[in-house]
Design goal:
Glyco_hydro_22, Glyco_hydro_22_lys, globular, signal, lysozyme activity, about 140 residues, 6 helices
Length: about 140
């Protein structure tokens, strides 16, 4: 059985150095700076909800899982050099996890721009889609 490397969205957007949590509003600032607010019709609330349900804002979370529960994985999106990959983002998985966020942001945008948008993430479909999400931004960007 092939093991597939699954990475949470937060891992795609933040450099991986050590296990740690990122503040919700700090993550919102990063996402906004990288023009993800409104990208393909998805708000920062959508991105924050997804980051929470995928990793609980743990910026170093990388999962290995064979059940297909996470939709950003090395089988489809990046090349991990351990298993066959479609490499849709045309990137090495290590580049996506590196401090240079250009590959990570580019891949996340490619995923959302494709068929299904954020529905490519099972966790987003189950916990965020069609739900009121405005509370995710409460207290961020005020003043």
């Amino acid at each position: 059985m092939t093991r597939v490397l699954f990475m949470s969205l937060v891992s795609f957007l933040i450099a991986i150095n050590q296990a740690s949590l990122i503040n919700r509003c700090d993550l919102a600032r990063v996402l906004r700076k990288e023009d993800l607010d409104g990208f393909e019709g998805y708000s920062l609330n959508d991105w924050l909800c997804l980051a929470f349900v995928e990793s609980r804002f743990n910026i170093s979370k990388v999962n290995e899982n064979a059940d297909g529960s996470f939709q950003i994985n090395s089988h489809y999106w990046c090349n991990d050099y351990r298993s066959h990959s479609e490499n849709i983002c045309h990137a090495d998985c290590q580049d996506i996890l590196s401090p240079n966020l250009l590959s990570a942001i580019s891949c996340a945008k490619r995923i959302v721009s494709g068929a299904g948008g954020m529905k490519n993430w099972v966790a987003w479909r189950l916990h965020c889609a069609g739900r009121p999400l405005s509370y995710w931004m409460t207290g961020c960007f005020s003043g």
